[in-house]
Amino acid sequence: MKRNIAYLIIYIAASWLVSSPAEAGTLDSLQLRARAGYNIGGTMPIPLPETIRSIDSYSLTSSFMVSFDAMLPLTPQWGVMTGLRLENKGMKGDVTTKAYFMEVVKGDQKMSGLFTGHVEQKVKQWMLTVPVQATFMLSQKVILKGGPYVSFLLGKGFNGIASDGYLRKDSPTGPKILMGNREGEWATYDFDSDMRSVQFGVGLGVDWQVYKRLGVSADLNWGLTGIFPGDFKTVEQTLYPVYGTVGVFYRLK
Amino acid sequence: MNKYIIFIIGVCCCMASCIKDEALNKECDIESAWIEGTEYEDYFYQTTEMRKEAISSAETDIVFSVRSLLSLSTQIPLHFKITDGATIEPANGSVQDFTKGPVVYTVTSEDGEWKRTYNVIFQEAPLPAQKFSFELVETQTEKTMLGGTNEMHVFYEQTAAGPNYCWATGNPGSALTKNGSKAEEFPVYSTPDGKEGRGVCLNTQSAGALGEWMKKPIAAGSLFLGKFQVDYVLSDALKATRFGVPNSKEPVRITGWYKYKPGAKFTDMNMKEYPDREDEASIYAVYYRNTDNKGESYTLDGHDVEDLDKVLDHPQVYKVARVASLPPTDTWTQWEMFFEGRDVPDDMVAAQGCNLALVFSSSKRGAQFEGAVGSTLYVDEVEISYEK
User: Fold this and answer.
1) Which of A54, A104, A185 sits opposite B235 (nearest CB)?
2) Which among A56, A112, A145, A200 is placed 20 to 30 Å from B165, CA to CA?
């Protein structure tokens, strides 16, 4: 169903591009850009729950983005933009938790409880993203843009380590299972295959053509779907990918 | 580049500013309990017995062994270390009368929503047991968050001073990955088919996908005199088995009956199969000093007995007894083992200065997660002979 909606959006956007009647909307006025950028952000619960006590470290993993997009001006100021983006929304973060709910499912067994300690989290999300955005030309050189996007995941990774703490099994009065700070003493987890294959979100951004055909851009892409389906309980809160992109573009046409 | 840095700072600030106020603690444990003051020392055989440190999170009874209940003061102030922010009733350090049976303490969490109750028991140190027939068993139930109820057998001995929960099993470790299991589905349970009356069945089980994921793919059946501290099962499994209970007579020989059938496939902690290895059962005992050179209480754990050939080199250990071999058999067969090692000072023995650890396991290398699923050891009618 979701996939069908995504195809529909792409279809509408594409047909608009080739068949818009207004003068500004002729194919002659089509603007094409190639861009590359870097995604900076995190995949996190929003808002952060009180069970996350601190973010101890945060680093970016290879979160590159390359895209090709087309903008069709419909009026002198307004237009529509779509494209195809290959990107990774990755991150590595260390957080300290207090009584953070966790449930682990392996085969037909389950274990759940409250974890207090250190969590090292790695997220990898290679995806093909199709944005559909309305554009507004502030000037000949500056374009504001905003609209929804859909992402199809090509490579998924969600794994980490729970260490230096303990899990209270079942409840705060259940057995306290200690976790150490070395391999073999800590618990690792890996939920790659539980991740969603399609994500939706909204994006906002600005393109600024700085020198001849070269420009810089900044975008914010806010995930509206969690990276896991709703029935996935291992991580208590829904994790949303929220990433900013800084990039450069080259206007091809 | 500037933009990039500003962006990172922005993201970090946003994330940091989103940290909510810390919630009040939900836990309500007694972490340690002790009696302070030299005037109370005479009630105990060992001053180390006045302090109970590192109380297991699964413990609900805190037992102090005393020389005599009759001569015990009716006004003993007991002190506790409890979870930060939690409260305890009766008050911490308040004077209580322990001569009339257990005193119940209730600990309430800082947020007021969780409670735990503990029985604090002062008990006369039990006389050394001559015989263990494993007739007495209690079924302990534990509700899991997932809605099931686990049932586990707990073995105990009846003494003049009341029930003595001297036996421990690894069952609480297995319970972590179980939900709604009957007592007979655990690695150690009481069976009506003993040598005489009831006996004990120990069996090596698969710990399932979850166990495999935690690199603890099998759970050997293990029964021992001592305590199982479930807290360590994941971080340091060998530390979870706290072997030995005080014993004021020096053991010379232990005998008993067994049946054994090794499981089909011997595997290691990575579930790698070893077709040419056959699982073996293990029965051994260690007699050791329960106070170290610094005067602190000492309990032997799984690390100390990892290599039984070297246990006698351990500074705390006086004597070791091992059953040389337990060949597979489906009829009740007698075994015996003799203690060997160093001489034990008599006064230390009489003053409860030594612990006796007696250990049964359905897989000899079970503590290293090596063994064969399905290995089954039955034990019953264990007798201990002491030095005259």
Assistant:
1) A185
2) A112
